[in-house]
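Progress note, sequence design subtask.
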């Protein structure tokens, strides 16, 4: 049986790797570079070594040097994942028989192709289109699944959740699973079960604390028909499950609860996590920077000054911007264009922003929408979110704040 030695990998990384490689009948052995990596390598003499590093430290180079100088181990190929490294340094690793260096966040499908090539094998990999976004606010973990149910991403989710719960020190996690743009049928049943089972795999996640937002009747029927999902709540919009997931002791204002507890993620909780990234998620091998999103963005704003300011702000994203003074003009354009992002005011002449959201929902046009409006009433926030808006931002905001939120939504549209 072929064997792979994995050194210094975090839980998500090691768990998913082990599951995937075991499926391919490949034995996995784990080691720590500062503790037992070299003796384990000599005892196992694996077909491949995979190393994950946070930095190229002395112990790392000591291991590589000892391996290179050992006649039994020198020819074992190595694949490394780590921080961005200068080309000259990457090239210097070739002397240690490092055949591939992946900058983090690694793209798992490309990563496994390199592993398969080294082992002279072919791995099965689900090509289904699918997007997944995860963010955290206090003890609430929001998971958005869109486009489709990709089994690779569903499998990674189990380890990602445990990693987040551990990192954020959440004793009683509450999970909000959002699948608002998915229409499923019985052929998707196994994938829905995989998704739910992986969310509930961590014993700290109780079924009663899993809330699913979907308009899909199949998902609701599947949950109701499986005893293991007893207690899982299914609703058609976020406001309907809000009372059961947030602590209302700080405020009774529903709009504040939504904006403070739901829409604002705790960004530092997301740092250091292995990202759910795939080559198919982006258009180039190397991740693009924020100035090269190459996105199509629609701005619907009736005030000419505000519209021009927004257009000018978004030009820094190197995006293709289309501006509209009315909702009707924008809706006409959606017959020909699928926008990557929509910036929408609710106070518009003729059709209101709420009317626009309702029409988009009815025609199943699911481009992510940021509502950006001076209207800040509880009813407005709840109505916009229930009609499918991704987030609700209240004017005025500094341009860089709005841009950052837009970048987050654009990235999440294609990632995890």
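Output:
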């Amino acid at each position: 049986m072929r064997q792979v030695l994995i050194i210094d990998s975090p839980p998500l990384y090691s768990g998913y790797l082990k599951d995937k490689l075991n499926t391919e009948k490949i034995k996995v052995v784990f080691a720590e570079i500062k503790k037992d990596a070299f003796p384990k390598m000599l005892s196992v003499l694996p077909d491949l070594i995979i190393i994950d590093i946070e930095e190229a430290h002395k112990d790392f180079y000591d291991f590589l040097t000892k391996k290179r100088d050992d006649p039994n181990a020198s020819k074992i190929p190595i694949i490394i994942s780590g921080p961005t490294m200068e080309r000259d340094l990457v090239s210097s690793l070739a002397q240690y028989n490092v055949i591939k260096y992946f900058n983090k966040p690694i793209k798992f499908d490309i990563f496994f192709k390199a592993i398969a090539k080294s082992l002279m094998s072919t791995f099965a990999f689900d090509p289904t289109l699918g997007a997944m976004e995860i963010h955290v606010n206090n003890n609430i973990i929001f998971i958005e699944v869109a486009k489709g149910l990709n089994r690779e991403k569903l499998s990674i989710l189990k380890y990602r959740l445990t990693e987040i719960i551990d990192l954020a020190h959440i004793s009683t996690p509450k999970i909000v699973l959002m699948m608002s743009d998915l229409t499923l049928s019985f052929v998707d049943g196994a994938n829905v079960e995989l998704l739910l089972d992986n969310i509930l795999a961590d014993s700290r996640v109780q079924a009663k604390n899993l809330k699913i937002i979907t308009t899909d009747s199949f998902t609701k029927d599947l949950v109701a028909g499986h005893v293991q999902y007893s207690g899982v709540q299914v609703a058609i919009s976020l406001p309907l499950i809000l009372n059961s997931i947030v602590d209302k002791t700080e405020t009774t204002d529903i709009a504040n609860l939504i904006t403070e507890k739901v829409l604002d993620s705790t960004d530092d909780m997301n740092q250091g996590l292995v990202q759910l990234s795939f080559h198919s998620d982006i258009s180039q091998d190397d991740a693009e920077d924020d100035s090269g999103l190459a996105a199509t963005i629609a701005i619907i704003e009736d005030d000419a000054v505000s519209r021009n300011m927004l257009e000018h702000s978004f030009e820094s994203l190197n995006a293709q911007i289309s501006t509209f003074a009315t909702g009707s003009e924008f809706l006409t354009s959606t017959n020909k264009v699928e926008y990557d992002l929509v910036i929408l005011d609710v106070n518009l002449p003729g059709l209101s922003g709420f009317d626009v959201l309702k029409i988009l929902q009815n025609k199943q046009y699911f481009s992510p929408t940021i509502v950006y409006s001076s209207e800040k009433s509880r009813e407005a926030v709840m109505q916009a979110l229930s009609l499918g808006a991704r987030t609700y931002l209240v004017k005025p905001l500094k341009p860089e704040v709005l841009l950052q939120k837009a970048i987050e939504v654009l990235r999440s549209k294609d990632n995890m």
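The longest strand covers residues 131-137. Work on this subtask will continue into the next period as scheduled.
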